[in-house]
From TrEMBL, chains A, B:
Region ranges (Disordered): 1-25
One family name in Pfam for this protein: Pyridox_ox_2
UniProt name for this protein: Flavin-nucleotide-binding protein
UniProt source species: Streptomyces fodineus
Transmembrane segments: none
């Protein structure tokens, strides 16, 4: 039983919604993998239902352990709806990285190498002042680690204008594709090139604000990028 | 009246769903801008409703004029649902590019520079064989322009296993943020660095398949990247 407990602690429990109908070998419920994919992203795609129809919006997010936080204006739709709806707003939050273009000899087997995380759950408004502050720090630190400590914290007016919602990492799966193109055996001799064109991400030189006060230097945590 | 007609042709008509409740200055309905954002992306996030809850999945797409196409296994959920549901499946398809991290003196004004397109509509299964072939070509050419002509076309078995859905570009909006951090006037003298850290995308060296037939050269359209 000890082994079972350890396994459960390291992975999310699959549910009907997180077990795919196909390509099951591409799915993972490993917490470390899920955290790594989430932490590498800048924007998630948050889905919710409005008047019976789906809405998918890109938005920033932050992670604290097994909790994700999203923030926005108190007037924005999903944040307002999560407060108005009891016991919260059903959402689906998805983060995707495209790692490479997969070119096969056959049109059919063209694909991409990617890593994605899909989180299903109920988004709830965070009202506890301490948790709200922690969540807002996590959102800023998600953009640049350590940045929250090197900026002016939110004041009362800003806090009042900001809604924070929480989504627990509970019903979660990762999905990924890696490696070569998978052509059928009878296509291997075709004269078309096959392989992967990797996509790379990087940072350009930091662009200081036009109104930057004289003498303000680029911080070390940005020089290292 | 001629001017009005020209304006309408160049832009999508805003609807209740595509006019935001805030930051309206970041919205655009310009068709050229929408097309450019869509054509630059590799993956869209497709949202639909299943058992009353939202689902958001990353998937490839292709564009032909004012139509978007998504494909997948005939067994995959959204593609199956779009065929079973009459008159189609309500979806929301979103494409987002993250262009830079915006660091403000205040935690509150941290943001990202981005460009996104949100498409609302009804996804319908494509059954016409000619349109299906054109859509599958568009999907391959979206990954690498011109690639469809340099690969083996889908055979009968592959076509039978592939479902294609169409989403018309009708209820569409783009949203974007560009430029500096926007701090409040009283924060401009704070000692925190403010500005933008640009994110850059590029391609790595192509990785040929391990089972590539001898003598198959890298095509010119991949050398140019």
């Amino acid at each position: 039983m000890q082994g079972t407990t350890e396994t459960e602690a390291a992975a999310y429990t699959p549910t009907d919604r997180t077990v795919p109908t196909r390509s099951m070998d591409r799915s993972s419920y490993d917490k470390e993998l899920v955290h790594a994919i989430l932490d590498e992203g800048y924007v998630c795609h948050l889905g919710f239902v409005r008047d019976g129809a789906p809405v998918v919006l890109p938005t920033l997010y932050g992670r604290v352990g097994e909790r994700l936080y999203v923030h926005g204006s108190t007037g924005s739709r999903p944040l307002r709806m999560s407060g108005e709806t009891d016991p919260g707003l059903p959402v689906c939050l998805t983060v995707t990285h495209v790692d490479g273009l997969v070119l096969a000899r056959s049109a059919f087997h063209h694909s991409i190498n990617y890593r994605s995380v899909v989180v299903h759950g109920i988004a709830r408004q965070v009202t506890d002042p301490e948790e709200r502050r922690m969540a807002l720090d996590a959102l800023v630190n998600h953009v640049v680690p350590g940045r929250a400590a090197d900026s002016r914290p939110a004041n009362k007016k800003e806090l009042a204008a900001t809604a924070v919602i929480r989504l627990d990492l509970d019903e979660v799966s990762a999905k990924l594709r890696t490696g070569d193109a998978n052509d059928d055996p009878e296509d291997l001799a075709l004269p078309h090139w096959a392989g992967v064109l990797p996509l790379q991400k990087g940072y350009g030189a930091p662009v200081p604000n036009a109104d930057l006060a004289p003498g303000v230097e680029l911080p070390d945590y940005l020089k290292a990028r």
